[in-house]
Amino acid sequence: MTAQITAGLIGALLAGAILYLVRRDHLHGSYALWWLAVAAVILLLGVFPPVIDWLGRVTGINYPPVLPIIVGIGMILIRMLKMDIDRSQQERQLRRLTQKLAILEQELTEVRRTNGASRESLSRESAPAPADLPRVVERR
Amino acid sequence: MPSALFVLRSNASPSRLLAVIPARNEAGTVAAIVRGVIASVGCDVLVVSDASTDETAALAKAAGAAVIDLPCRLGAWGATQTGMRYAQRNRYGVVMTLDADGQHHPQELPALLAEQRRCGANVLIGTYAQRLSAAKRLAWRYFRLLTGIGVQDFTSGLRVYDRRAVRALASREASLLDYQDLGVLMLLRKKGLTLHETPTVMSPRYQGGSRVFSSWLMVSRYMLHTTVLCFAQLGVRRRIAVPKAGAANPS
Description:
The complex is a heterodimer of chains A (about 140) and B (about 250). Helices cover about 85% and strands about 0% of the residues of chain A. Chain A contains 5 helices and no strands. The radius of gyration of chain A is 31 Å and the shape is elongated. With about 250 residues, chain B is α/β, with parallel strands linked by helices. In chain B, strands 3-2-1-4-6-5-7 form a 7-stranded mixed β-sheet, with helices on both faces. Chains A and B meet through helix 4 of A and helix 1, strand 3 and helix 4 of B.
């Protein structure tokens, strides 16, 4: 019975931690859903370890304790694969954003330069108050 | 007052040419290259500074180029693609790329452009077969076998792209590539564009070695990376006719 209490405690602790993080809004959207499911499974297996023996019997595995380990490792691998896919997607987005930012920055500099030049030549032609000019340019 | 943007975009024509020069810390050579291109071709020049930490951007600007300064390092292809996207945004018809380190001669460019117009290929690659080392020849033979793209020099940065090629290379699909080499060529082939290779003259790099062929570790990394890239593209393997260049490398 002590083993079951230990397992239950570990399960409850993990599930509680995940639930806490999800509720604190540290995890976004689909990640939160995934981790909530993980927390539910951990809690279930921790509190009711016989479920594992039952699953072993159903799937025909002679040594049931190995079942959660195998399934767990499989899930971790899938999760990591998904993470790398997401990271590649983010890398692509980051690169394109960086490029766009740099292109827009160049354009902005160009527009400012031509605008500043035309305003300067305009005010030089009419020349009402040369002392006022720098402040006008700055405010823009 | 007329906006500069309007002025930039109103004079679009299919043959407007932009020279894109990706540069990372090339302050020693970039100004001379920019002046050389302007003198020999007379087109607009764009230098994409790949987060340079030296005076590259300022010197290029002073030499008469438009300058895009990337806020963080994107690598050689990332910088070149920035140029492609700039060309698309500002309605340039043809993009020519060359390296900033002085190995490509600006006076060779008019001949290259004329060749591109003559053969009508979507992409023209300038190759200098004599510069290839034995290791590079072996590597390229391997990749020719793997991809079926019959190009002598896969990494030559001296290229002319037409509008269709620029559109293909400015796309999201091309954003995860790292070098202007096989990945780019395979993407172009997938889109059904034609390649043509022409011999030209290049000089050895004035400073610094090849980014790819600098050490054995880098080489094996590059070979592995590119092999994986080739396998990812195996499904679209379709032989395209690459017309034999006149004085092609016999090896």
